Amino acid sequence: MGVTYSLYIAGTRFSGKTALCLGLYSKFQEMGLKVGYFKPVGQGVKIVDGVSRDPDVLLLKEVMELEESLDTLNPVVLGKRYLDNLLKDCDKLESKIRKGFDEVSKNKDILLIESPAIPELLTCCNLDMPRFSCEFKSKILFSLKGDEDSVVEKAVLFKRFIEQKGGETLGIVLNFVPLQQVERMRGIVSSILEGCGLNVLGVVPDHRDLTNPIVYDIVEALGAEVLTCSNKLENVVEDYMIGAMTPESAMTWLRRSIGKAFITGGDRTDLILTAIETKPSVIILTGNIYPSRSVLNSAEEKSIPVLLVPDDTYTTVTKLEFLTGRIVPSPKSMKKIQLTKKIIGEYVNWKRILDDFVESKRKRGNA
Amino acid sequence: MKLNTLFNPRSIAIIGASNSPGKVGFTLTKNMIECGYSGEIYPINPGAEEIQGLKCYPSVLDVSSEIDLVVIAIPANRVLNVVEECGRKGVKALIIISAGFKEAGREGAILEKKLVEICHKYGMRLQGPNCLGIIDTITPINLSFARTMPKRGGIGFISQSGALGTAVLDWAIKEEIGISSFISLGNKADLDEVEFIEAMGEREEVKVILLYLESIERGQKFIEIAKKIVKKKPIIVLKGGVSTAGARAAGSHTGALVGSFIAYRTAFKKAGVIFAESVEELFNYASAFVEQPLPGNGGVAIVTNAGGPGILVTDLCEKLGVPLATLSKTTRQELASKLPSAASLGNPIDILGDAMADRYEFALEKTLQDDSVNSVIVLLTPQAMTESMGTAEKIVEIRKKRPNKPILTVFMGGYSVNEASTYLKDNKIPCYDFPEKAVKTISTMLEYSRILGLEEEQVERFTDVDKARVEIIFQNARIDKRNVLLPHEAAEAVEAYGINVPKIRVARTSEEAIKFADELGYPIVLKIVSPDILHKTDIGGVVLNLKSPEEVRISFEEIMSRVSQFMPHARIYGIMVYKMLPSGREMIVGMSRDVQFGPLLMFGLGGIYVNILKDVSFGLAPLTKYEVDKMVEDTKAYTLLKGIRGEPPSDIQALKETILRVSQFILDFPQILEMDINPIIVYQEGRGCIALDVKITLTLD
Questions:
Q1: Which of A2, A182, B58, B537 has the greatest count of CB atoms below 10 A from its CB?
Q2: What is the tens place of the pLDDT at every residue in B85-114?
Q3: Which chain B residues have any C-beta within 8 angstroms of a chain A C-beta?
Q4: Peptide linkage before B309 cis (omega within 30 of 0)
Q5: Which CATH superfamily is domain B467-579 in?
Q6: What single DSSP character describes residue A185?
Q7: ipTM for the assembly
Q8: Which of A256, A276, A301, A306 best probes binding to B when mutated, by most B CB atoms within 10 angstroms?
Q9: CA A262 – CA A271 distance, rounded (Å)
């Protein structure tokens, strides 16, 4: 243990951890390094072949073509009621994680370890992230959402928590920074963080193309039938609009909205045709009302995907709410994955990580 | 002439010609043979030697002579092959009756696309597909389902609905209305209404063009061509899908965006196209234009044998803005000399219930001689002594003697006026059963006279504009991926086009706000800048009348705290700081780019009233000075602007100039989809106007 340089990427829910892993993974790989990925404790949301899996791990495995099995990459998957058997299974979990780590770190130069979305998870039984970071001799890189001043408090709190358990932090990356906050994060927020001993390794502006779902994600989330343009499912959805007014009143709003998913009943021919003129990313017809053929012709002509869903409009919107504000890990969206790599390469100070890697290698060499 | 090969072909081939009655190809062939066409007819059908007595050919390629026009009535899936053959044969025009194209779904749409490609390749023009053909009574040709030809006459009729066209045609035949040509547009894959209007416009025999339309795709071209043709002959249009439900139905039917009715009305007005509200109106107007001279200056005179209907006509004239003639003293004296003393000599001229034909004759003669009269409506109700037939005969006689002014008649009643009314119609005098139709017709004729009298006006361009500055602003928004400009950006953009706006600064901190306030001068207004907050006043995002730096500081912080409380997720760009303006008349100038007709401008009473009072008028850019005058004068707010109850008039000139500048601005930047200046504050005459709040939405392509 301890031959491979490992970096623990820790952060809260929807803070861009997976994106950071993805970006750094491909960056280092590009440089000819042997890179590994490991998520000791995941949270199971998706069931694959009867086993609940962490979608982040599924994504990384598919996109980076990881050789290791899912059980190795992610030995522990917790459900919502994970406390039930925890005390009984504690030892078993610990050894599973160790075994997984040993396997993935074999023949690797750099190992990226992703923390669960609750960074303090399993503190109650001493199987938490800081503890393993000590054991694996990993440095910790925070990935936090930089949308308001209070991110500083959160970061410092985590730092103290880690230090108290003997861990070591490398720095912090501020993700999803809204455009108007970028200057603030780079300026006063960064300087306060640095003052508290946290190196700021990146201020990554919010990139809507990344956090917004694509039409494919919507098809999946709604179980929709694709009526036209199944080749346009990579369209990015940036906004949602519900059509219930007259076309004349709707026009102004339709035009103001970019990359919208337009949701209305299949019988609202007038509205659908008006919406088609304003180039939406997708039209979602609710209530299983099939539109007229001529309407589909128009959509086809303008290359706009039309989906049909059985739910009513309210239920549809409720289901869609879950998709916004995060990167939906969908391997279908190659554009998003390319963009993630590009953005991480551009805004994250990976050279600093590389320096640290070289430095630690040198130290080990000396030892 | 344009489309001559369609209206007047030297030879015609009928693909799908047939010997079996009940088939479309049978009817087409039979109609062509019977209509009196003098050119060659070639039936095409690989399964027959002879069709209805004519030699039949397996394909157009087997016909040795030239073929001008081919009509196709075979199943859609076989159409492409024969069209390709037509192309190779050198055919000039096609009419495709066959259905099963765009209207039938996706495969059909693909088929139609290929069809158009073949036509373009060989330079053939195409009417249809999915249409009900063409009739021309002048040539004559009858490539339609109509069994008999309509009477030859001056009406050219273009219909987007084939079935409606056929039904109307059938009715016109019964009513003996003279038609010169009938066109069924079908799917408009190639030829559309614009081209047929142009062609009929060039055709001498067509005196008036009628249209039934559900959608217009090339709106701006339509305006351009119609405007030209209207100077030669009236164009009257009946538009289907004017109601919300109707638009929905039309959309499902044609698969085309029907568009806003306001845009259509505005476009028709701009082009000088007359708008009919029913099929009946369409033909009432048409007959009047074909049969009657146009009214000149003056007013309408009403000759009646009953008080009640006379009053009704007078009411309608008032309502529709038709001026009533004031008879000259001479006319009144002459009328008084022979009419009973109880007769009313004003207008309406009531010649009393016992009026017989000779009294009508006398009164009509005298009225027509009066220079202040430009047209006469003759009203007749059947009473004890009334001679309806005799009166009709007298009217026809007078018409012949005095052909210069329109005479419209209203013979109210049923059986007792039937014969007289038919006699009048047969002799080219419009006769209606109720007064409203007559008044509407006169009103329409007056409108057309006015259109003819309009002089061609060039659109003036302002040269003191800074296009580059606007481009930079738009570019910056594009980089940020914003399609709605921030208020200060929008203000700067219109300022570059010479529109007066307040000086706006955007502050991010209260210190900045105070600095700007000191620079701009008090009292100050603060307003939140956020694309996510639409109703800024409602959440306390606007504070007016701040008189000191301390007030600015407090309000700045209050706004920020209210916004973060009520709209925690809104994107905030800062707070706008500008000097509070003195009050004036609040108006609105807006623009929405219509999908069919382009930039549709709106003017009206602004501020918070716009949604309630809807006192607005519309115009399509580019606007001429005359059109802007009309736009402003068409609102009720105009009275307010002129100054009421001793208030001084507002600066209407400055307002009109602003509208003209907006018109140029949106034409120069087609990426502007919508814009609103609400309010634009208009001050007293000579003190100008100022665009207080400007909203601009851009397209992102």
A1: A182
A2: 999 999 999 999 999 998 888 889 899 999
A3: 102-106, 109, 244, 247-248, 251-258, 260, 262, 480-481, 483-484, 571-573, 592, 595, 673-674, 697, 699-701
A4: no
A5: ATP-grasp fold, A domain (3.30.1490.20)
A6: I
A7: 0.70
A8: A256
A9: 10
